[in-house]
Amino acid sequence: MKGNEAFAESCLRAGCRFFSGYPITPQNEIPEYLARRLPEMGGAFVQGESEVASINMVYGSAGTGTRAMTSSSSCGIRSAVSSSRRSPSLPASTCSSVRPAAARVR
Length: 106
Hints:
Order of helices and strands: HEHEHEHE
Helix content: 40-55%
Strand order of the largest sheet: 2-1-3-4
Shape: globular
């Protein structure tokens, strides 16, 4: 299980039942995993047309008392959260890491 998948599973176990997100690297494993698992748990998965649309769907869902989340890259979260500063939701931001070139040790 990849780290993003483990994160998604932990959100499900914590009661998340709605996800709306826009697929963007490096967090693609989160929506892919939740698209499979949420329907099994009685939840709903929606692929939004943008980060802003996705976070607004999460706000609406959370407003009904449903545990809801979205995920994106760090720039996507910045774009989505700028649409509103108050949210009873969990935005997940993932960052890709760059591995430095291996140093030659003598």
